[in-house]
Amino acid sequence: MTTRSDIAGLIDHTLLKPESTKDDVNALVEQGKKLGVKAVCVSPSQLPIDNPGDLTVATVVGFPSGAVKTAVKAAEAKQAVADGADEVDMVVNLGQVKEGDFDAVERDIHEVKQACGDVLLKVIIESAALTDDEIVEVCKRAEAAGADYVKTSTGFHPAGGASEHAVKLMSETVGDRLGVKASGGIRTGEAALAMVKAGATRLGLSASAQILSEIDA
């Protein structure tokens, strides 16, 4: 049985609204501590975070489009690490994916991973905008490039967020070698549990408190 505490330990408690203030981030951190989540995820301009306690600090790179030069993503990742990020969530270049230029996709991820050093790297593939074959190939390239996780979505793409189908496909592709983060549009306890059942090992949530309140203790 998956308990509320189990689910809390998988959550990246997330605040990526462009208008978020430092006070909003401080409130997120305090709420994250009370909920017992794994991490907080904020925009890079909000780093460093004051008094994160035992929380892992995550941020985003090339967010939300992924359509910036690799050197810019790498520089952003390097700066984020210098500012105290424990984990980096980068967005792939979806144009390169759609063009079938997976060598370029792999190079993009590799360069960001090099900039991250020992800091954990999650690769956002924007699964709702991809075909199954594209999902599988991007996941393979993320693994080859040295990524630690593959992640479904930014939560900002009009195609949608995480789906059980995508999470299952991603999990089957990377096995237990990489983690799988489900993120984007997960708003109920039932949905969160379904993502874990499909193979998610992390959850990116903004409605963490409400979701956890719906899960049996």
UniProtKB/TrEMBL annotation:
Q: What is its EC number?
A: 4.1.2.4
Reaction(s) catalysed (UniProt annotation): 2-deoxy-D-ribose 5-phosphate = D-glyceraldehyde 3-phosphate + acetaldehyde
Q: Which GO terms describe its biological process?
A: 2-deoxyribose 1-phosphate catabolic process; carbohydrate catabolic process; deoxyribonucleotide catabolic process
For the keyword Cell wall biogenesis/degradation, the answer is no
Where would you find this protein in the cell?
Cytoplasm
Pathway listed: Carbohydrate degradation; 2-deoxy-D-ribose 1-phosphate degradation; D-glyceraldehyde 3-phosphate and acetaldehyde from 2-deoxy-alpha-D-ribose 1-phosphate: step 2/2
Q: Which Gene3D superfamilies match?
A: Aldolase class I
Q: CDD domains attached here?
A: DeoC
Q: Name one Pfam family in it.
A: DeoC
> Cellular component per GO?
cytoplasm
Q: Which keywords annotate this record?
A: Cytoplasm, Lyase, Schiff base
Q: Name one GO molecular function term.
A: deoxyribose-phosphate aldolase activity
At the top of the EC hierarchy, this enzyme's class is lyase
Q: Does the keyword Cytoplasm apply?
A: yes
Q: Which residues act catalytically here?
A: D89, K151, K181
Chain's role: Catalyzes a reversible aldol reaction between acetaldehyde and D-glyceraldehyde 3-phosphate to generate 2-deoxy-D-ribose 5-phosphate.
Protein family: Belongs to the DeoC/FbaB aldolase family. DeoC type 1 subfamily.
> What name does the UniProt record give this protein?
Deoxyribose-phosphate aldolase
Gene symbol of the encoding locus: deoC
